[in-house]
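Hi support team,

I've been running sequence recovery on a batch of backbones for a student project. Most finish fine, but this one hangs at about 90% for roughly twenty minutes before it completes. I'm not sure whether the input is malformed or the queue is just slow. I've pasted the structure tokens below so you can try to reproduce it. Let me know if you need the job ID as well.

Thanks,
M.K.
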């Protein structure tokens, strides 16, 4: 007899649940909308900040190769996501996929993981956006009171009002409907892609070939105590990540991976897509390809404009233009970064609310949150709840040290989705798959290995915090979710078999 902990939810049942009037989301998104969502969430702080960090500390001009490595890891996972999102067009992304293949407990674990990932991601980005806005205000001669501004480097206890207000405004936009969210995202994405293209085109005129020599700097050991030093790798393999050299590229890839986080959120909108079988693969793979090309070009330009050893860590793109005697571009880039982060924040919040909604519809979270708005057909209750919680989190809590949890949570989801593709191919070969991941099971296995490799490059402290959150999730599941699950209740109310 199959354990109740691993009872799976049939794909057909998941799709039928989306057709119930009180739980049905409005289908309004196209392939273009999904691609814009993907580009909107992927291009964010990563490209404006991480380029300088990894070029200076790990890869030099070969940072472009680190972006390629991270993009390939994401592409492997994206092919798996594309198959699932087109086969099971239901809100919830990796959570829903796991429920159909691995069972209820694994689905709960990945859903719990995604709730943490998206919540922290939204709060971290909101705080980063607030920092950019305050910087622009200071340039204009305005200064926020310490009690209402950023907490970074300040001894005054305060509330980051800008970060909190941003989250609340975006919460309201998400409640009003997905089409409005898509329109807002389209405008903002156009602005920040323009900024990135300006960096690439204008910066190309200031490239000095000597800055690329050497393209892959000579390998050096990472000094003990640095944040990139992973005790877990030392314990397992006897060595630490290297500064520069070929291994420095892989270490850099584990860091710049943060810049790619978000394409998987496109899958959470599958239920609100008009033609998910056709449009989900296009949106997921298209947005990832566009962003990878832009990242590689930006990293090549910025390391060509200024020697990697002299790059700024806080604002490498803006400061590279300053170093070439063009400070006007610095303000333009900061403006683009601030505008661009609004869509990152909104789409992360969108992803979290859809996962929360799907878990509520299945009874693993209170069903109160599974009702959609009668007019806007959006999951307004979880959107408002999570928006308020994250606004408070962004306002009060310093989150910089917890940002790595976003990376490990995403990579863990990648592992689960890749495994789920293999299992569902064996258990349900009859399902119609509008998009099929190539070379199964080889490609999903490679995806699992690549994701685990990047996870191992994260600090041991991140693993400990991740383990604590997962342990709390297990407790919540056994105290509440296991008995309130919709599948458990349907089993309890099903008629008993006739006596022989």
């Amino acid at each position: 007899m199959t354990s109740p902990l691993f009872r799976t939810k049939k794909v057909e049942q998941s799709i039928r649940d989306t057709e119930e009037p009180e739980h049905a989301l409005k289908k309004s998104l196209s392939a273009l909308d999904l691609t814009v969502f993907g580009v909107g969430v992927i291009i964010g702080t990563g490209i404006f900040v991480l380029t300088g960090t990894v070029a200076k500390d790990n890869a030099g001009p070969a940072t472009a190769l680190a972006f390629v490595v991270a993009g390939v890891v994401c592409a492997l996972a994206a092919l798996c996501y594309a198959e699932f999102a087109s086969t099971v067009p239901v809100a919830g992304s990796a959570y829903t996929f796991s429920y159909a293949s691995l069972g209820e407990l694994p689905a709960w674990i990945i859903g719990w993981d995604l709730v943490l990932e998206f919540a922290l991601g939204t709060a971290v980005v909101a705080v980063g956006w607030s920092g950019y806005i305050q910087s622009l205000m200071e340039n204009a001669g305005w200064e926020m009171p310490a009690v209402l501004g950023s907490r970074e480097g300040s001894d005054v206890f305060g509330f980051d009002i800008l970060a909190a207000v941003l989250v609340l405004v975006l919460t309201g936009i998400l409640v009003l409907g997905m089409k409005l969210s898509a329109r807002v995202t389209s405008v903002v994405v156009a602005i920040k892609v323009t900024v990135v293209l300006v960096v690439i085109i204008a910066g190309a005129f200031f490239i000095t070939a000597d800055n690329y020599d050497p393209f892959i700097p000579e390998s050096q050991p990472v000094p003990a105590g640095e944040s990139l030093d992973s005790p877990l790798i030392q314990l397992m393999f006897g060595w630490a990540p290297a500064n520069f050299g070929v291994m420095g590229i892989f270490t850099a890839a584990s860091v710049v991976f943060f810049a790619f986080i978000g394409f998987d959120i496109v899958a959470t909108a599958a239920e609100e897509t008009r033609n998910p079988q056709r449009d989900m693969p296009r949106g997921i793979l298209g947005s990832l390809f566009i962003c990878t090309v832009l990242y590689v070009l930006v990293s090549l330009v910025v390391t060509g404009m200024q020697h990697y050893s002299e790059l700024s860590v806080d604002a490498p793109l803006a400061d590279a233009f300053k170093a070439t005697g063009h400070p006007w571009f610095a303000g333009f880039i900061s403006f683009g970064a601030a505008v661009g982060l609004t869509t990152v924040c909104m789409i992360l919040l969108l992803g979290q609310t859809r996962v929360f909604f799907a878990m509520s519809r299945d009874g693993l979270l209170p069903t109160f949150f599974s009702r959609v708005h009668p007019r806007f057909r959006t999951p307004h209750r979880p959107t408002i709840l999570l928006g308020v919680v994250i606004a408070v989190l962004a306002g009060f809590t310093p989150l910089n040290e917890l940002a790595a949890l976003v990376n490990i949570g995403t990579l863990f989801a990648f592992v689960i989705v890749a495994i789920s593709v293999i299992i569902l191919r064996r258990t349900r070969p009859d399902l119609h798959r509008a998009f099929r991941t190539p070379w199964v099971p080889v490609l999903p296995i490679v995806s699992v290995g690549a994701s685990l490799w990047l996870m191992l490059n994260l600090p041991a402290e991140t693993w400990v915090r991740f383990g604590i959150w997962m342990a709390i999730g297990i407790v919540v599941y056994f105290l509440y979710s296991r008995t309130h699950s919709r599948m458990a209740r349907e089993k309890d109310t099903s008629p008993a078999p006739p006596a022989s």
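--
Follow-up from support: It reproduced on our side and the slowdown came from queue contention, not your input. Residues 224-241 have pLDDT under 50 and may be disordered. No action needed from you.
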